Amino acid sequence: QVQLVESGGGLVQPGGSLKLSCTVSGTTASLFNLYTMAWYRRAPGQQRERVAIDRFAGGTDYADSVRGRFTFSKDNAKRTVYLQMNNLRPEDTAVYYCNKDDRTWGQGTQVTVSS
Q1: Smallest Cα–Cα separation from 66: which of 2, 111, 4, 11?
Q2: Among 36, 32, 39, which residue's Cα sits nearest to residue 95?
Q3: Which of 7, 57, 60, 77 has the smallest number of Cβ neighbours within 10 A?
Q4: What is the pLDDT of residue 57?
Q5: What digits encode the pLDDT tens for the residues 39-80?
Q6: What is the pLDDT of residue 58?
Q7: Rounded to the nearest 10 degrees, how much is the dihedral formed by the CA atoms of 69, 37, 80, 56?
């Protein structure tokens, strides 16, 4: 059974940085390389927003709200994807979720940007 576990959230001041991780278990590195992986977020009282998506053979796309500040990366050997978040703003405060193939979700990790 494939499972996703996020980590790396926390409290950071505006302008700061965080790096989220999402490790996929129950799979192999070869299969992991074929997955479409994405990061989503949900802020209180708002709809879920896709932040970044990495498609197998399709490149990486970002939401306009984070483009230039957030960077998606992956380590196939570790079966882990990352979201490097720089120049964080209070409006980035949300629970961030990892997603595999638009089907499997992690439990989420809280990111709070506040002074």
Answers
A1: 111
A2: 39
A3: 57
A4: 79
A5: 999 999 999 999 999 998 779 999 999 999 999 999 999 999
A6: 78
A7: -100
Q: Residue 112 forms beta bridges with which residues? A: 11
Look at the block and give the residue holding tokens 């796309």: 61
Beta-bridged to residue 100, according to DSSP, are 37, 104
Nearest by Cα to 44 from 115, 112, 107: 112
Report whether pLDDT(104) > 90.
Answer: yes
Q: Which amino acid is at 55?
A: R
Q: Report pLDDT for 92.
A: 98
**Residues in a beta bridge with 40:** 50, 97
Q: What 3-state class would DSSP assign to 40?
A: strand
Cα–Cα distances in angstroms (integers) from residue 58 to residues 15, 37, 49, 53, 111, in the given order: 31, 11, 20, 10, 28
